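Hi R.,

Here are the chain sequences for the assembly we discussed:
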Amino acid sequence: MGRQYLLYGAVMLEIEIDGQAAQVAEGSTVIEAAHQLGIYIPHFCYHKKLSIAANCRMCLVQVEKAPKPMPACATPVSPGMKIFTHSDMAIKAQKGVMEFLLINHPLDCPICDQGGECQLQDLAVGYGSSASRYQEEKRVVSNKDLGPLVSTDMTRCINCTRCVRFTQEIAGVMELGQAFRGEFAEIMPFVEKTVDSELSGNIIDLCPVGALTSKPFRFGARTWELSRRKSVSPHDGLGSNLIVQVLHNKVLRVLPLENEEINECWLSDKDRFSYEGLNSEQRLTKPMVKQDGKWIEADWAAALDYVSHALRDIAAKDGAESIGALLSPHATLEELYLAQKLLRGIGSENVDFRLRHSDFSADGKRAGTPWLGMKVAEVDKLDRVLLVGSFVRKDQPLLAQRLRKAVKRGARVSVLHASDDDLLFKPFAKAIAAPSQLPRLLAEVVKAAAESKGVAADAALSAIVPGESARKIAESLLEARQGAILLGNYAQQHPQAATLQALGHQLAEIAGIRLGFLGEAANSVGGYVAEALPKGQGLNAAQMLAQPRKAYVLLGTEPEMDTADGRAALAALEQAKTVVALTAFKSAAMLDYADVLLPIAPFAETSGTFVSTEGRVQSFYAVTKPQGDTRPGWKVLRVLGNLLEVAGFDYESSEQIRDEVLAGQDGFVSGLDNAASGVSLTLDVAASTFERVADVPLYFADALVRRAPSLQAARDAVAPTARLNAASLSSLGIAAGSLVRVRQGDASVQLLAELDGAVADGCVRIAAAHVDTVSLGAMFGSLSVERA
Amino acid sequence: MALLGAINPLMTSGWAGGDAGWRLKDYVARGGYEMLRKVLTEKVSPDDVIATLKASVLRGRGGAGFPTGLKWSFMPKNFPGDKYVVCNSDEGEPGTFKDRDLMRFDPHSVIEGMIIAGYAMGAARGYNYIHGEIFDVYQRFEEALDEARAAGFLGSNILGSSFSYELFAHHGYGAYICGEETGLLESLEGKKGQPRFKPPFPASYGLYGKPTTINNTETFAAVPFILRMGGEAYLNMGKPNNGGTKLFSVSGHVNKPGNYEIPLGTPFAKLLEMAGGMRGGRKLKMVIPGGSSAPVIPGEMMMDLTMDYDAIAKAGSMLGSGAVIVMDETVCAVKALERLSYFYFEESCGQCTPCREGTGWMYRIVHRIENGEGRPDDLELLTSITPNIMGRTICALGDAAAMPVSGFIKHYRSEFEYHIENKRCLVPRDVQWAGSTFYTGPSC
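And here is the predicted structure of the full complex:
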């Protein structure tokens, strides 16, 4: 049997499986070769994304000349190999293993939550016998508390260790292991610990039996009762593909829809469990109008009539420019497009979806729409990366997973940030400093790269002297074959975001690497495509709050949580004459400042489009009917357009709107470009003690996830504290765990002080987007800390 | 007593001094470290060392009997980076106690063997993984290492040569599975002792992912003696394909249980005679010739066998580690198997399915039979379980657990049947008690 060398260099071996000849790449295993031929070999522990364990022994097959059956998952193919997956020897071996797997496994599928979607149950039909020969006492294993998301029934565990390998290899942190020996072996977390990974839900999918099941979904329905509908995650910029499972018009579960180019076969916990928020008690299901300070339910006609009159009155009396619109970057492309078209139609340019941004000086200087700068699938192929201002592990968990994969392949990832959070891989070099100093740090890297390469640096950098870590980072980037500088959410929200972008662009040019923005939200790219941002004299998101308007239109957002300065947002909304909120949820704050609440459908109840951080256009249909009187946002905006007599509002379907926005762009949008020219660099911001480092915790990031009870019970959703490093705590004479008063401007809140060695010197990390810290104000700025 | 008897002793030749004769000076006085000196100063090539071992047909003394010279030649020669030599002193097989005494009475022979192994295979580092239940021996081995270091037999540029080698002892925690060579490597790396699946074999992917050769303590201890006498001469001490002498740990119902060194190919009858014959003059009932995992051989069959790898294998068992467990007519075969099955049930690592689930199942059935709750179809069930375990697991523990079951049922089926039918032993209880110096617990 010969070897064949193909053009691309892989050696192909000729083998035979069940009499079928095949050519497979050298180094592949028998199970991979079989899958290539479409031959199924039963297995439990094998998973294409995980390391080989070969412990379940279910995939034993006969290999010619081998005296005993071989595990297909761990046996590499060799030239001329003849494999029999269904020979007497193979079947006998597989049936033997199945019998062992079942002797201690409860045979009570009817009461097991995994019933109907259980690999063991399925394979037992083919390989098990109708009655057990095991007449002894069966094993009982105590259940483990893995946290609010994963439910356990450990007696059902077959010790395949998929979950153990997932946490170590993909999630990047050892949270599960196999303790004890032999028949007493148990899968468990560390004593008194739960599984807190932001990717933990994937172990539910991986578990081939009912040992690990979804806690929120537990005993909710049988798998065969559920309809499966495709959708797209409305959270981070990745646009993970979903299978939404629906029963009686209610979303009961979300599973990953495998897409190797985006989320592979994984989902972050946020994408997986946020559906609980769809059924929140705070869902707004009827239009409501405030009259004489009292909320009354209205019908759609009356509510829309009220809105159109209110907006018309204000435009007539105070001018259209006194109306502003704050749009959520999690809204659909169609909603964003219609909202800006409506505002512009009535004469206002004040529209923006970049709610958490605080620097808009790049407006008009950008070469195109900021995006990831590459395909998502290219992230794990990078070999040199500089991550600037990013809580990537929490903000884009699956992108962090891809970076981890890159590091495993030998990539050097350096970090420039205000907090040295554990990324679950070892950064090559780190530069950690107060937020105000991030532009200077990045400038140092640019300068070092220019010097090292012998090219002229920007004249504005003449006074910059690169430090040691800047040089180390620059050197590593100059070695790049596939390099990138990635600006995270924090860098995009930074008060000198334009400077960071311009410096990033310079660095990318010098080092011959790519510049990318990690998408903050599902439509961070889509917002630009829909032109949902001000042009000319229009006010941007920050200006609309700083220069309060007479009327605001809110689309899918709670500005006190979703903007760069929640305090200013509240103040602006409270003074406004009219606040129209198109929203899926109501909150106490909203009932206070709003005048009309129009219930619009969240992602599961409307058709729409998200343009992901890689520029990928992903349209989706509604998976359920809208709850109550809720209507899809595009329909509401369309009718408002008609009532306000704006031309071109005669859409019949969301597809029509999408086609108008995208104008023939298919698959991926065009006009993506991260260059910025003519930005004046701001590098000389003096550091102050203390500076606030405000992250947006992943389970507070948008209105939907804030209302998902199980996620709110997760460790990542703990109430904000004032986190300081040991030096800062001792300089203040404050003990960790004591109550402190934090003052920012004329606002102050009381928080618990917490020791966090990751926080940069002279900084206090206080999470944003939480009701406890809204009153503090802007995400960036100086503050003082004192004993309470 | 250190050694109870020997024919042409090699490895035990230095045991005469007992606990007083293990120190470096004693070993050197016996001609120790001469071979190391010779190899290093006369610049004997590594290939020549391996060739001598190949000629000697030294077969691995840990149980599998793989030719040592061949194993050493598998180590990649020009590997860039670390290579390791590991000594498997995790002697946990019930019935085996030879490595313990080797390290107790002549630790330097093991050390010298490991240094020569490092030289022959181009490794700069060695580890001796010592069983957890013999802590005093571990301490003595550490002392011996200190002596060797102080004398310049370990460290940089040993005896002025360009060869540098460091050797460390590691104290295990007593799990049987860590005696499986890849389980040992995992444990040595600080992980849970669970065997790895092979391929890749340790010679290409061993300790810390580097090429590694693992040999038994006795194998290493034999190396200096082989070099001294030459491969041919060593081979000729035994019989063809079974070179040299071997230590046998004789236990059970003999008058003088203990370690014996005899040339391979010596008749079992001779060994039994050296061990003082059967206790109380009772009749030999059965022998487990190579440690608890070897299938049992009935006494009359055993008396015709010679003690070497090939003869025992031909009789359907294994020479294994050389643990000869002798049982007389007072032994109930069911009770003996129950004890063995319990051991494997207890020691299975739990990694792969057939062993994790099968060992417990087999033990519970045998336990039931022994306690008078056997069912008519139990024997058929047991004999159908064993082939589902053998050859289906990651490591050999599955085979080791299944072989005693099939072996006992094959040779003593009538006793099992009697047990199931009559709910009591074929061997009367008072006879069983008479064969033991201690109370064996309630039987039926």
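The interface with chain A takes residues 175, 177, 192, 197, 199, 345-361, 364-365, 368, 375, 381, 387-388, 391-394 of chain B (CB under 8 Å). The mean pLDDT of chain B is 93.

Let me know if anything looks off.

Best,
T.
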